[in-house]
Structure prediction request, 238 residues.
Amino acid sequence: MKVKYFAWVRERIGISEEMVEPPAGVRTVDDLIGWLSTRGETYAYAFEKPKVIRAAIDHTHVKPDAMISGAREIAFFPPMTGG
Amino acid sequence: MTAAATIRIQEADFDIAQEIAALTKGRSDVGAVVTFSGICRGDENGEPIAALTLEHYPGMAEAEIKRHTDEAMSRWPLTGLTVVHRVGRITPGENIVLVLAASQHRQAAFQAAEFLMDYLKANAPFWKREESQKGTSWIEARGHDDAAAARWTKS
Prediction:
């Protein structure tokens, strides 16, 4: 699946998007954050406060316990400041 | 059935009079147009800023705004709705966002415009970065925007 990063999440990790293949045990958005955090220091830094991170699956806001199976695109970003 | 909303995300500035004219031209049923325009202030938290840069999530930003204009259209009798959100680098005094709501009578237009702005603030995937003498930093979301959006939830 494709993962996209925005704002300071993107800056901390250093890339704006990538394709990932999480292992079978990674089922929810929260699981995915945990798994991504193990990929390196930049990821751990971006996700050091998981409660602050917001997520969207296929362009729709989701909660941390949302299932990721079937998702084409998952995005992680800080709370929004538009408008 | 009401018309479809106009939703645009763009770097260029918008012309408010032109956008209002688009909602009223050739119609005799529009009795009210409410305009909200959001403007870049010259300071943030008491500190002067040189500019804001707005980042957004292409695809989701349009989809999320459309979800909210669809809801506004279903909750209030509107003849038209326009949302224009700028992205990119914006300096103090410049326009950032425009919400126009048109209806036969004023109550629907006032309420729809406020509803849309409250929801845009809370849910639309845009992020502001400020430039000041201290450097650049991401503006933090404030809890009261979520509270403002929550008060529109139908019970």
Observations:
- The CA atoms of residues 19 and 45 of chain A lie 20 Å apart.
- The interface with chain B takes residues 4, 6-8, 56, 59-61, 75, 77-83 of chain A (CB under 8 Å).
- Residues 2-77 of chain A form a domain with the Ubiquitin-like (UB roll) fold (CATH 3.10.20.30).
